[in-house]
UniProtKB/TrEMBL annotation:
This is DUF3800 domain-containing protein. It comes from Mangrovibacter phragmitis. InterPro entries: DUF3800 (IPR024524).
């Protein structure tokens, strides 16, 4: 039996919000960490953390939180990460640029339908390039019109959104030299909408071109919730790692998550996902057959969740500081990140998935030889 401890860092609110705020209240990143520990190694994990606290003069009853130690005691964070890697715990982490994730949804909903007959490798390449172009260069109107479409789907708003995107891809602001190919794909998407409208109705047809709504713990409809996207991706990665035998694992999440009911819903809902329309990601298997057990614990009572918090918080602060703020950091921060991404250097679904613009991803991967 394997137990996975999960926690997140960064505002988990809707990516599609009332204010259409693409600055996300100065929290552009969301990170999620998932630390897998074999049942027989949990006592050793607890013993190490007790010894770690003693070495650093921390009372054993004190909960380890990333926000308390990232700046004040980076050595503690490094030692904890180093232990996790040395013990070969299974790390399945996500670093998500929220604006990039909206761009992913724009491409998946409004461009990919026009490419459904393309080779999967070519489709993935084109998809990644377009996500990078939109997230990096597209004006705010492209995001605000998509936001309005998601909040209140209609044929009129679909046309307005696609028109704003076509205007961008036809402008000098678009660095992509595609001879109008992207605009033609938007036209094909509108043709597909018209076909579906003729077969069903506009209200039914529009559902093919907007993200599936998420639900919060009160049953309210929310749009593009970052921790739901990360959670789905992590389940698909664990499904790949465990060869679809998810009934053999336990997921332990912090009870403080306000989206506990949503995650419960996701566990059952992911089995209904139409894998034919999911992007082909080599590290993921969205054909989920078995259901993992999901439980919630107070992080104060779970050493594993505290470790997940330290890793998620470190990834958020480090990547934000390095890639987005250009902060100069001490060597120990780079060393800690280098240890976290150690699993990325092996050919399996483990490690950290970076949902960030390709330009930033290429720079990061080049710096750390990934």
């Amino acid at each position: 039996m394997m137990e996975y401890f999960l926690d997140e860092s960064g505002n988990t609110g809707d990516l599609i919000n009332k204010k259409n705020d693409m600055g996300f209240a100065n929290q552009p990143l969301f990170t999620h960490s998932c630390v897998g520990v074999a049942e027989g190694k949990i006592s050793r994990m607890k013993g190490f953390v007790r010894a770690l606290k003693k070495r650093h003069g921390i009372d054993e009853s004190i909960e380890l939180k990333s926000q308390d130690y990232y700046i004040k005691n980076p050595e503690l964070v490094y030692e904890l990460v180093d232990f996790v890697i040395d013990e070969k715990y299974t790390l399945v982490c996500e670093v998500m640029d929220k604006k990039c994730n909206v761009a992913v949804s724009i491409v998946n909903q409004l461009i990919v339908p026009a490419m459904e007959n393309e080779d999967s490798n070519e489709l993935l390449l084109v998809r990644n390039i377009l996500v990078d172009i939109i997230s990096t260069f597209a004006p705010e109107i492209c995001f605000s019109t998509f936001s309005e479409l998601c909040k209140d789907p209609s044929e009129e708003k679909l046309n307005i959104c696609i028109e704003s995107l076509k205007e961008f891809f036809s402008s000098e602001s678009n660095p992509l030299d595609d001879n109008g190919g992207t605009c033609r794909m938007f036209d094909k998407t509108l043709q597909e909408f018209e076909y579906r409208k003729s077969r069903y109705s506009a209200d039914v047809a529009i559902k093919w071109f907007v993200p599936i709504p998420d639900l919060d713990s009160n049953g309210n409809v929310i749009k593009l919730l970052p921790n739901v996207h990360s959670f789905y991706n992590q389940i698909a990665r664990l499904n790949k790692i465990h060869k679809r035998k998810l009934s053999d694992i336990v997921l332990t999440h912090d009870t403080s998550s306000e989206f506990a009911s949503t995650l419960d819903f996701c566990i059952s809902e992911i089995k209904t996902v139409n894998v034919d329309i999911m992007p082909k990601i080599p590290t993921c298997d969205f054909k989920v057959i078995e259901t993992p057990k999901l439980i919630f614990k107070d992080s104060k009572d779970s050493t594993g969740i505290q470790i997940a918090d330290i890793i998620a918080g470190f990834l958020n602060r480090y990547v934000h500081g390095l890639l987005y703020k250009g902060i100069k950091m001490d060597t120990i921060y780079h060393a800690t990140f280098d240890r976290i991404i150690t699993p990325n250097r092996s050919r399996d679904p483990k490690g950290t998935n970076f949902v960030i613009p390709l330009s930033k991803q290429h720079w990061l991967f080049s710096k750390f030889n990934l």
